[in-house]
Write a structure and sequence with these properties.
Two copies of one chain form a homodimer.
Chain A lengths: L6 H4 L5 E14 L3 E8 L2 E8 L12 H11 L6 E10 L8 E12 L13 H6 L1 H4 L3 H23 L3 E2 L5 E2 L11 E4 L3 E5 L4 H9 L4 E9 L12 E10 L4 H31 L12 E3 H10 L13 H15 L3 E5 L21 E6 L2 E9 L3 H10 L8 H5 L8 E7 H8 L21
Parallel strand pairs in A: 3-5, 6-10, 12-13
Antiparallel strand pairs in A: 1-2, 1-4, 2-3, 4-5, 7-9, 8-9, 10-11, 11-16, 13-14, 14-15, 15-16
Chain lengths: 446, 446
């Protein structure tokens, strides 16, 4: 490696020669002095060069100085380069109170002079040039926050002896339903389907005696919707655990997980998030409020809203209303909505014998659903009956149902969309903003 | 949660009432006494019950005792259940020096009486019933080792401020070559391809100024081969870093990463690995040996072997030979083979100006290639010329090439097959043994 100093390390360094590498954010090419803002993954620093211009009277000038001045004049925004120079701490410099007086400049790869996007470009245009869009400090922070959030979740699970899964995304039968399914030819003689979730396999891990598992990986939905919350490929955060008494044991794990992970984000990035997103990261208190669905409907009705859905589920505005109620009543950003009717739940959710409702929940965060969790039906006879009651063909579920024939512990788990959590944590308007490269019905590139 | 005690916690517990949950590994149903081995994810424990049989003379017996004895007699292997009983430490008990005298037994889900696989079943049969196969202690350990290995790698990167990526697996153009490519219909008007690697996108992250990135995720190859080292879907461990001087900077990171991760595995599972796999985990010393490809050919020739490949690459036996040489000469399990000819490397590998060879390496571990690493060509003119020289159409690479037009730092990285590392670490014969659910040309289920 070169003796490269990260911009973030400069403040702690004494004055003297340094070498930094990054890209050109701005150039101010004045007659007598040139300023360059150079950014790397840790910050930005001002470079300064007293311009040496060809003398109008033809007096000879220092060739190297002329060349350096000329090189700076010709720098396009975005060009990656390495510079050497003298670091000087100077309180008068707005940007971090320091600057580097340039000695030399070495371009690694020059940018074309016309940048195809600007700060006010449309989202679609920004997605076309996502690698330029991601150079913004704000966008870079999103993915550092994501990294911290994920690692804290994994650490929570590792500390509790969970096993990390990599379940297959190529399947011989759908993992959830026959809707929204991507299919592909598999060696000319079979059809493979892309996993809509790791549901089958994280349950299989329970039959395998793994006890507690998690997986963070991409899943696929051939969903033609264009909302701010949907994508055709997204990162799903999944966990599944054995020997639970009900879905509330899953909820208890998930709320502790989230509080731990959000605490880690606040500790590491809280200040920067406030600066760049104008959001104060709030670590949620435990337990999160829990409200049965029927009661949620009464609450929002009392607020003057009724969900237009005929299936009894909350619509997006209903989710916002109940979250507003929870925020006002409990000062909480999260709420578990519980006790869903089996008609609006998949066949594998366990039913509560007393109420006939599912042992399941949705978790809402700042008004948007981020999770469905449930206890699963582990008794094969009941499971088959529930599948048949939903009109499913048992043959299509053969592999899945086999998992239950040779012993299975009571178990449950949840799936959570990583991008939704990030969107809501940072107060962004769309998961597109917090996804590295969004995929939608008309978006397959770059 | 029930007041469940994990089997692994029993040894430290004083004698008295306990409740444990798990599955039936064996039943010994003797006339006067019954023994059950119950296993959970942390270990196995012996349950004992003095049998109460219907008296031949018709004397009345304790109904509950009769029922418990009968229930044990009818337990099928694999049945998941919760038992309560009195824990008793007793040095005469072979299995861990303790047993539980049963009070009660509650079956969660009974197994069918005939288990479809046995210890000596073929690999294909075991894969059909993978969830039963995975109940073996040895197989369970594989995935605990995998979890530890991965987490240690991620921790290494997190400690060094890498950003974790989730790059899309659905792409509008191939990420590596047009061979071995899965294609699918995308909403009726486009063809999507499944990512063969995150290559394009981890390079895009360099153009985005992310500096250092990693990703651990599944990638897809429509590879019709049936070797012990190939799969159509596998977990790829990828990293990419900016501002390197050459591929040797990538190698230096990778060897440190592996040494750190293998140390973590040894610390946490070393004893158990030796017990169950008869393998002594060796933490590799740094640096790993580095041998240019041309010299490797000379070395194996001197050992009496010549690679039959006409393209100048090592064949599998050649890899075993050079690894044997390294083991004998340096006592090392790893070796970097460097300086590959551009003909056997992708177009995006950077060439060394002095030698005309690529700035790339393969990493061999115990005789098998686990990684290709390289410095990438970051200069758009050179990159385009190298693509054309390989006969590639630039139009097909348009999105990728765009990443290089607006500034790009020098960079490089590696991709490593997780299953290969696990296979070689544990001395297994095939990646199928260390993959949760293997996918091959004729294997798409369960």
């Amino acid at each position: 490696m070169t003796e490269r100093i990260l911009v973030g390390q400069l403040a702690a360094r004494t004055d003297g020669p340094v070498s930094v590498s990054g890209w050109v954010e701005t150039v101010r090419d004045q007659k007598k002095v040139q300023f360059v803002i150079l950014r790397d993954e840790t910050g930005a620093v001002q470079l300064v060069n007293p311009a040496t211009r060809p003398a109008e009277d033809g007096t000879s000038q220092d060739a190297a100085a002329l060349e350096l001045t000329d090189a700076i004049s010709n720098l396009a925004h975005g060009t990656f380069l390495t510079v050497t120079g003298d670091l000087k701490h100077d309180e008068r410099v707005k940007l971090g109170g320091l600057e580097i007086k340039l000695h030399s400049l070495q371009v690694a790869a020059a940018a074309l002079p016309e940048t195809p996007i600007a700060a006010d470009s449309s989202m679609d245009k920004r997605m076309d040039w996502r690698f330029l869009d991601l150079r913004q400090r704000r966008n870079n922070l999103i993915f550092r926050v994501s990294t911290t959030l994920e690692h804290a979740m994994r650490q929570y699970w590792i500390d509790r002896d969970y096993i990390e899964l990599h379940s297959p995304k190529l399947m011989s039968s759908p993992s959830e339903s026959h809707a929204e399914l991507f299919a592909l030819d598999y060696f000319g003689d079979q059809t493979a389907y892309l996993a809509q979730s790791p549901q089958h396999y994280k349950q299989m891990a329970q039959a395998a005696g793994f006890g507690k598992v998690f997986e963070i990986s991409d899943v696929f939905r051939a969903d033609p919707s264009f909302t701010s919350r949907h994508a055709t490929e997204f990162t799903s955060v999944d966990a599944e655990i054995s020997w639970i008494d009900s879905h509330l044991d899953v909820a208890a794990m998930q709320e502790e997980l989230l509080a731990t992970a959000i605490q880690a984000v606040k500790d590491k990035h809280g200040g920067e998030i406030t600066e760049l997103f104008d959001v104060e990261v709030t670590v949620p208190t435990l337990p999160f409020p829990r409200i049965p669905l029927a009661q949620a409907h009464e609450i929002i009705k009392a607020r003057g809203y009724e969900s237009p859905r005929t299936d009894g589920d909350l619509d997006p505005e209903g989710e916002r209303q109940i979250s507003a109620h929870v925020a006002e009543t409990y000062g909480h950003q999260f709420v578990f909505i519980t006790d869903y009717h089996p008609e609006i739940r998949p066949f594998y959710h366990m039913l509560d014998e007393a109420t006939g409702l599912t042992r399941s929940y949705d978790l809402l965060f700042n008004g948007v659903e981020i999770t469905t969790g449930a206890q699963r039906e582990h008794r094969i006879e009941v499971l088959e009956a529930q599948a048949v009651a939903k009109g499913l063909k048992l043959e299509g579920l053969a592999h899945y149902l086999d998992f239950f024939r040779y012993g299975m512990p009571p178990h449950g788990g949840f799936g959570m969309g990583l991008a939704r959590v990030l969107m809501l944590l940072l107060g962004e308007a769309s998961i597109r903003e917090v996804t590295f490269l969004f995929r939608g019905p008309t978006r397959l590139a770059p």
